[in-house]
Every structure is written in structure tokens, then in C-alpha cells.
Input
Amino acid sequence: MQGLLERVSERLAPAGGSVPSDPAKAVSVLPEITASAHAALPADSKTAPGALEESSKAQSSAGATCSPEATLADLAQLLLSTGHSAAEVRSESQFTRSISEQDILLGYLKGTPWDLKVGEWLRGLGSEETTFDTGGRRRGQLDASTLAVARLGRPADLVKNFLRKEGQEGNSFVANAAVSQIMEPVNSLPVCDHCCTLQELLQALLRSPSGAALVTDGRSLLGLCRAADVLWAFCQRVDLGEKMWKRLAGRCDLHGLSCHAIAADTPLQSAALAMVQASEARAVSDGLLPHLLAYQPGGKALVGVLSPQQLLSSVPARLFAPPEMEPHQLETPKAWLQHHPTTVGDVVAQRKTPFCFANESLGEACDDLAKSGRTAAIVLDATNGAMRGVLTENDILQAFVNGESWDCLIDSWLRGDDARMPGFVLPVLTLASHANLAEAASCMACMAETRAPPGFPAFACHHLLVRGHFDAEDRCHFRLLSALDIALGLTTIAAPWLAAEGLAGELGTPPVVSQAMKPRGLAVTCTAEDSLADAFWALADSLQNCALVAGEEDFGEALVLQAGESGEAGGQLLKGPAGVAICGVVTVADVVRAVSIHEAGKCSHTSLGCWLLGQGISPCGRSIAAESSLAAAALAMVQRGVHHLLVVGGLSGEVLGVISALDIVVAMDKWLSERSHLTQGASALESVVESLEL
Output
């Protein structure tokens, strides 16, 4: 691999290894690429007029829109012709959800018909007529275009805004940063042979953080393929079995539209300028920015690739926001925390992030997770230390349900269809260390409020990544940010600072536990006689992480008595429906625990009652009153090392529901967002402080 890349020589780097004086000249224009900013629909399109739209206002500020009646192929054409990476699906002018190029590519891989209507696709291809599950929410699906920067506008326009703000105060990171600090190293890029099929290329692209793959002929580097190139193939209805280079060579060769050469030590400002100039030099404006192929300064060896998304993700949002989105005009409740001294970097520094290696087994990873007490671990390449993905508790649950061998390597799991945080989704789940808690909450709530259609992978919604410092080898270090970290930060860490500021407002009271919980009727419920395996299957089928365990009252009393004898405050018997006691809960953490103590093979023969007795935790030991503040709930979770609490009503001891750390994040994010129109600036913080006091 290294020898091959070193032979790229003159095909990649300009003579002398310096940055081209005119970056635009490095890009040739291919007449057969016909997408334009105002491209018409194909002649045989099945999309009704008006189903796809991108107004002049949308062109400068927001994403494209389409109706549920648009076909996937025409939506893909819209994304290509405008340069957007996502579109909002609107039914009768009401926002339904977002759909991105990643969604379409996943559908392409799974054989989704090109003429399928977007509305039918969002309903999971089912025949049952159901309304879209918006829940009154305003955000869309988890992917690169609905999170991060893409919803502010076209990448090309955002980069231009960034260039206009060169030298702006507070832009020190950008002024000092180079391409090498944020690019994807070449040794972590997927490499495809030019004889591979389009399907094989697509699978490789979906594993790439930068959404790109190198193409070789076994002797030399031929080009670079991007996700947008395969999206074009979908529009052209190319069969996945066809040879990729036969159809994509014109778009992907080293002198085509997809890439541009630059030195790895080039400043980000110059890299952004090179992207824009290369894009504008084309005779046909397709709105797409090229990837940058980074070569060794003064040499000719390829060392990495920088995508437009990676560039934008590394820059504070205020530096590429359009003029109407300047921070001083965004003083809403969610902007309050912009001024807070506690950042996500401060939050993740308070707890260690567990790591494991891609060549370890799933069983070994469970041991590491169980010892760390965390719900996920960052997966590193064993040879170069590059981040390959994140392994979560939900991965372990899915592996159990799939009957996966615990000797399966983590690397193999991350390359499969059921991985929750594979490498290709990490860029959109990554925040800069200086990001505020409100931004983190908004990203996580966005993931939690939507679900992938049946047959598509359900990506993680309980974790984000925080980009840290660079080491001596220019490798970036990352840390995990969990839902509990954000919940605790929003409800307790901010409170002392807000109180000290003496800020006041008329926002009303934030939600309490009973308003944020999942009601008992909607929670998964098992009996104490059910097996542990039954509970795990129920969790996987329901896409929930916690199940209530109901049993006879005498068994519940035995648990309370056992907890009292072990020194834990046993408390009262918790009640469910008439004559039934709530004996405890089973969560995804129990899957990890079962594997780590080598009991996974016995789950089908272990009753939930026996499991709870073995854990020695009283249901009262993980409960909270329904009228408690969300701050009290978050603090109780941290103190008890859990992510779920039973919600108990009054003196009756009746279990009303269950609340998770993610429920707290979603509730706080929704509360702040709904009140964004009620105030300006930081004048309304006092009510937040008073309501969050323990």
C-alpha cells in the first residue's frame, strides 16, 4: 500500500511539492457531467412539478426541500444539482424529516428501487398507510446533512462565508491549523481496485469517515471516488454489479471533478480557497466542492484526504454562518449556554474514555466495558492508532440477538450492517472541544427523535465524540460524550454559574421527571419468570434500552429485604398493576455484564428473578420521585452508576414509568427550543436556575 502511494509522483503533486499558484488549473472539466444548480428533472421523471424545490432563499441559507411524492432518483438529482447533502421532506409545508445522501446510498446498497416515492420509503416500504411520526418536532434524521453544518446552506456558500471572515477575532485555531491536522490519514482510507463492482465501492465508501475511497490498478493511483459520485450512479440507474471504473472514471480520475492536490501543511484558509477556486473553474457548476488530496510537503507521497465536510466540521459555526445568522442575533434560550464557561471538552475531561483495539474480540471488549463502567468504547486500529469506530452496549445487545460468536473481531463487527457507530458516521457525531452543552444536546436529541426505516441500520443516539488535542504525530485524540454527561452538564454544572450571573426571565418552569419519563404503559415489561434472553430479545425488538421486571409481591419483598441485609437502603415495595410488584429493571448494561462474567450462554436458562437476586439491587435503589427535578435525576444516575431510573409516584409506591439520561437530554433540548421565541439574549436564565435547584 505505502509503496503504491509513493509511486503517485507527478500524477498527484505539483513539481517542487509546493501549493499550486492557481489551484483552479489543476481541475479539468468534463462535458458529460451535466448537473447544474438549476437542472431540470429527467424526461422520464415520475415526480410531479413542485415536488422538488430550492428557492433563491433556500439557496443561500437552508437546505433543499421535497415532498413525499418525489422519487428517490429525483431527490438524488436535486442534491447533486444544488450541492446540498440533504433535503427536508415537507408535507403540506410542514416539516416531516430530513433525508440525506447517506440515506439514499444505503437504500441503493439494499436494492431500493430508484422510482420509489420518498413518502413510501420513509414508511419503511410497508403497505400500511400511517402518518409520519413527527411528534411535533422540527428536526430530521441522523446523518451528515441534518447534523453539523449542512443545514445552514450549501457547503460551497458556507466555505465562501468562512473566507470572508478571515482574520476575525477568535479565529486563532483556524489561523494556525493546517490540512494535516484534520484530514483523514491515507492509511485509514479504503482502497478499491478499478475492477471492483459498484457495490464493493459503495460498501467501502460507507466505511470511510471522509466519504471517499482511493482507486488503483494495482500499480498506481487512478483516482478518488466520493459519495456524490455513487449518488450520480444511482440517478443513472447503474446496476451495482457493473465495474465501477467503467462508469465513474470520468468523474473520479485524478484530473476529474472529485479531487484536487495540495500540500499537507497548507493552512486551512488556503485549503478552503483552493476548494472554492477549483469548483468555480468548472464550465458546469454542480455546486460540489472537491476533496483535497494532501501530499507530503516537499515530496510526492500521498498522506491524506480532506473532504469539504471535514473542513467545515473543524471550523466554529459562527465563522461560516451567513450574515443573518451572526451570534449577536441568535440570543435565544439555546444560545444562552454559548456564554457558559463549561464546554463539552470540560465535561468529557471529568471521566476516562475507554479504548479497545479493532483486532480484539467482542468478548474482550465486554470485559473492558464492564470494568470501565462506561456504555461505549472508542475502537482504535492496532497498527497506527487511527480511530475505526465506537463500540456501544447496543452493539453487544445486537450481537447477542444475532447469535454472534464472542470471538468475533471488533473490526469484522464494525464492517457489518448492524454496527451502531461505524467509521463513516463518526464525522457527523463529532463536536469540537469548545462546543457548548446546548449544541451537544441538540445533536443528541436529533438522533433520538428519529428512527431508521425497517431494514436500515439504527445508528447510535446515546453517544457523541469530542475532538481533543493533537499529539506529536499529528493524530487527533477523541473522547466520548454520553447522554448522562450531557444531562448532568445541562442540569447541574451550569446552575451555579447561572445563579452567580443573577440572570432573570419569564420562561416558566422546566419539565420535571414525570414530564420527561417514558410512561409505564409504553415501557417494555417482562415477568420475573421470563428468561434473561427473553428480556434481551424484547429490548432489541422494541428499540428500547430498559425493561421493567414485574413479579409477585412476595418476591419483590424478598428483594427489598435482601437489599436491607446487604447495607443498601431497601425502601418500600414498588407497585405496578394490581397485585403485581415491580421488582427491578433489565437494561443493555446487563448484556455486557452477562458476557463479561461468561454467562451469555446461560441466558436462556436464567430467569430474570434469579438474575436480579444475583445483582443484589433493590428496585428502590434505582428509583426517583415523579415530582423531582431533572437535575436530581441526573445526579442520582451518576451516583448510582446507572442510566435508567424507575419513576415512583407520591407515597403510594406505584411505578409510573422509567426515565433515562437520554430522556433528560431530549426534554431539556425541547424545552429550550420551544421557548426560543420568548426572549432575546441572556435575560431569561434565572428561571432555569431556580427550577434546576436540587
